[in-house]
Amino acid sequence: MDHYEAHAVYAGQREMDDDLFGIVISTYTRAEAIEDGTLIDVSDLAREAGFRFPVAVTAAVYYEYLTPPAETTGQDIGGRTWDMLTVLRVRAKQTDFDRLRFTVLFEMKDGDPLRSVEFKSVCGPGDAGEPVITIMLPGEN
What we know:
Blueprint: H1 3-21, H2 30-36, E1 39-41, H3 43-48, E2 55-58, H4 59-66, H5 77-92, E3 99-106, E4 115-125, E5 131-136
Parallel strand pairs: 2-5
Antiparallel strand pairs: 1-2, 3-4, 4-5
């Protein structure tokens, strides 16, 4: 197949894709989401916790729950993230699904009862089709 034949095949495939999905207007990659802070990469700690795939959390998860509130003592981002990842890992071993919900207890203020926080985890394709995990709040996509 020469260059022109290959181009014709590609163009035909592209037309078929456009007919099926419509014209791509814009894209937003996982790498861009990590770069701009929409997602926070926690893959290094996740590997230590036994995950084989890259893991990221949404900014809402990171700033609302993993970052310890000023009203707490003895808490840090690493420990809170480790707790969340540990609960997810145990829960993930109990299912074959690519999406699951799990609950983690967090101290939000010294002396107050622990708060039960629900998260949603999605294992799906990354920018190059590789498996990646994203942890978010239930109302996030």
